[in-house]
From TrEMBL:
This is Peptidase inhibitor family I36. The keyword Signal applies. Residues 1-26 form the signal peptide. Keywords: Signal.
């Protein structure tokens, strides 16, 4: 006659292993500042309202073959800090570098409407070795950031006015 006790032991061990295997990635994500469900939801929501992007990771979406990159959430420990990566100029949806953040690097005129970022800029950071970028409302130049003034933590009185940018490369 077959004993049921060894089968229960094997099933219990398999259940424990399964629980550990499932909860370990969730615990790791939580330790990194969020759970995957929240990250997936943010990506899905952003892509639903801004279609055509390519997901780079659980926090970034690329448009135009990498011309424009959106970062949805600030990295842990960078709240209120100008944190544009080297080689880009960035603009933020909130004052004091509040995320989401858009970033560009190309020279010349670019419509922010192309990326659905028109009328959303509230702070900016220029992190290139030369040149500057001007933010415009139609034909009116609103403000600049560049090598002589790299950051603007609050673009008041021009919050949410910019609809295109012009980067002058020197």
């Amino acid at each position: 006659m077959v004993s049921i006790h060894p089968i229960r032991t094997v099933l219990a061990a398999a259940l424990v292993w399964l629980l550990v295997a499932v909860s370990a990635p969730a615990a790791a994500r939580a330790a990194q500042g969020g759970d995957q469900t929240t990250a997936d939801r943010l990506l899905a929501n952003y892509l639903a309202t801004h279609p055509g992007g390519t997901v780079l990771n659980d926090n970034e979406i690329s448009y135009g073959d990498g011309t424009f990159v959106v970062t949805l959430r600030a990295p842990v420990g960078t709240l209120g800090v100008a944190d544009c990566p080297w080689g880009w100029y960035c603009f933020y949806e909130w004052p004091n570098y509040g995320y989401p953040r858009g970033r560009l690097s190309d020279c010349g005129r670019q419509s922010l409407a192309t990326w659905k970022w028109q009328f959303r800029v509230e702070s900016a950071h220029y992190n290139l070795s030369s040149g500057s970028v001007s933010f415009y409302y139609y034909d009116t130049r609103l403000f600049d950031v560049g090598t002589s003034r790299r950051v603007s933590s609050d673009v008041t009185p021009y919050r949410n006015w910019a609809n295109y940018v012009v980067r002058r490369c020197v």
